Amino acid sequence: VMAFLMISMVSIMLPRASVSAERINEVLETEPKIKDKEETKQFKADKKGYVEFKDVSFHYPDADTEVITDISFTAKPGETTALIGSTGSGKSTIVNLIPRFYDVTGGELLVDGVNVKDVSQKELRKRIGFVPQKGILFSGTIESNIKYGNENITDEQMVEAAQIAQAEEFIETKPQKYQEPISQGGGNVSGGQKQRLSIAIAINPEILVFDDSFSALDMKTDKILREELAKRTKDKTVIIVAQRISTIMNADQIIVLDEGKIVGKGTHEELLESCETYKRIALSQLSKEELENGRE
Which has fewest Cβ within 10 Å: 38, 99, 189, 232? Predict the structure, then answer.
């Protein structure tokens, strides 16, 4: 009886395994659509850290409508550029174009003074620290995760990155500190801890992109983290996508998006006066008194 039961189980498992193997092979054999040119250009030393959007438009493959249209702005080293807008306005799409997860379909996107299509993807992504909204961690230890982007960083640099990301506080409470195990995907840490570790991983490159990466942090931690970032990333280009006005009030340049277009550009004070969309978002989150205090 047991032998017949085993035969029945195997006869069910084999077709399932075959279908699963086919699906895995489909992924492994897929040819990437974004490829490097045979002859790639070198980045310009005198434009280090510059991210320039020049009349950039983009639509997804097989889509008829543009997701973003005529996007033009420059993010400079030593400055923070923030993107804000309603859900579906194209904020994440814009930052996903910087490391070339997608290719622009119109206009030009330049990093370090060179079109991203003309450089090596590997060299481009070495210059960018990208933190997605949903933090991604790998199985290993806290140390191996923070050093993932650059295995050559020292322990002192690792601790500094954790301090900037406000991760040291909870790391020090762990029994094994930086040797504490992390499960695949970071399943054994909270959402806020996962985001802070993801931020710590990305601190070293010259261009830092945060795609709504502070959403799981409380207001106090968010504020302290941004203050530490401002102190220790003075020579880096920082680009932040945010939903909270309080996260971006002190940015050097705020880009306001609506339905894939720029409807406002300037500082917090300038946009409160000139951009109705920004003012509406601000008043929906903060009172007039809080906005006035923010200006001061």
Answer: 38
DSSP string of 228-248, one letter each residue = HHHHH-TTSEEEEE-S-HHHH
* Cα gap 289→283, rounded to integer Å: 10
Quick: pLDDT tens for 126-145. Answer: 888 888 877 778 888 888 88
| Residues 36, 25: Cα–Cα separation, whole Å | 24
Name the 3-class secondary structure at 258: strand
* First-residue to last-residue Cα distance in the chain: 81
CA–CA gap between residue 248 and residue 81 (Å, rounded): 9
Residue 79 gets which letter from DSSP? -
Order of strands across the sheet with 114-115? 68-75, 51-58, 106-111, 114-115
Q: Residues 6 or more apart from 202 whose CB is under 8 A from it?
A: 129, 130, 131, 149, 208
pLDDT tens-digit readout, 8-25: 888 889 999 999 999 999
Q: 99 and 149 in contact (C-beta within 8 Å)? A: no
The answer to pTM > 0.85 is no
Alpha carbon dihedral 28, 33, 38, 43, in 10-degree steps, equals: -110
User: How many CB atoms sit inside 10 A of residue 35's CB?
Assistant: 10
Burial class (CB in 10 A: 0-12, 13-18, 19+), 175: exposed
